[in-house]
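Researcher: I'm preparing a figure for a lab meeting and need a structural model of a single chain. I don't have an experimental structure, so a prediction will have to do for now. The sequence is pasted below. Please return the structure as tokens so I can convert it later.
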Amino acid sequence: MANAANTRRKNQWVTAIVDSWPYSVQEIERAVYSAGRVAHRVMVVLPDIISPYDVGDFPGMPAEIHRVPFWGNFATLRNRVMRGISTPWALLLLGNEEFLSADAERFLSALEPGAVKSFRLIVATGARGQILAEPIRVVPVSPQIQYAGRIWPQVGGSLIEFGYPIESLNAHVYRLQDLSSTAKATARLRSVLGKLASPRNWQAQLALAVLLWAEHRYADARSRLDSLPRTMPDAEQHMVDGLSALLWLDRGQPKKALARVQAGLARHSDRADLWVIAGDAWAAQGRFAEATDAYRRALNCEELLLPYMEPGYATYTARLKLARAEIATMRVSQGVARLLAILEDYPGYRPAWQEVLSHLRSMPPDQVFADMITVVAPSKIRQFFSCLTHPTADEFRMQEWLATRDT
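Model: Understood. Here is the structure written out token by token.
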């Protein structure tokens, strides 16, 4: 009885997210009921443009059905859903997966109050339970933890950047059919959006443009954007401006990117994404003073969820780019100080660590460490370097030195 009560109590700590595309109602139902064994709250996510389902297709199912705007990028969709979760942990399942009941108690016993960690689960398929992978499927719910990826969501980088340990848990997810090939899934997604996209269905057209950009098919993405109507709502027109500018930048034409950005900023000067793209365009032309100003302006704007911008583009990433631009204008001490300030707020942010170490390469490790601990707690420094599995030469030098120090 005590164990059952403890299990029910820990259920309250978990929200399960079930991805519905491209699975059948029967598969999704099976996933929902299995998730209910370990999660107090279960959410089924319907990507609005491509999903063939609506709330009425799931009568009586013990889950919340959420239709979420889809713009060709599942990472942005996942982050939007994560913002609506208030439990300490989120469990992620595909619509054709089942969390095995035999592992429920083991799973819940690993969750402890106040623990800041994530877990890998074992995904298996077939009659003999062939192991497919051990992906990260249980993540702490935090504004810092965001999914990245041009199309499919990945969270490992975010966890490492913010110092959340990743542990393997002997708990199994059974997949009815192995649909794990992202190349096949992307081709299917492109086909679905292609059939839906038209001048009248401009939402699908814009989502397809985002997808084509993500696949580096820039000419096709440009063609899709050019065929969009001029009368879209402001939010969607903003996306067209941003993606259009990014397309020019990715095609190696920063001057054209800048012209598109400046036209957008003339209408809306509070667009963080446009200021970041402007900074990148200036930097690509070697005009770092202008890039510095653009990145500063981005930091004063709100960071919105956009399918063509990675999370952090107007916060820690913009701060890193600003530091690089300052260093490029020979304000080295100011840029390095900015890098250290980033690490004070984001002690696991690896790109900032790598920049700092590259500029302190001439200093012995003990002096580097002494400088680091003026802004980052020693425990955070050790945690960062202990999590690295493929260190750079600069990182390895610090790893070796730390290994000789007392813990």
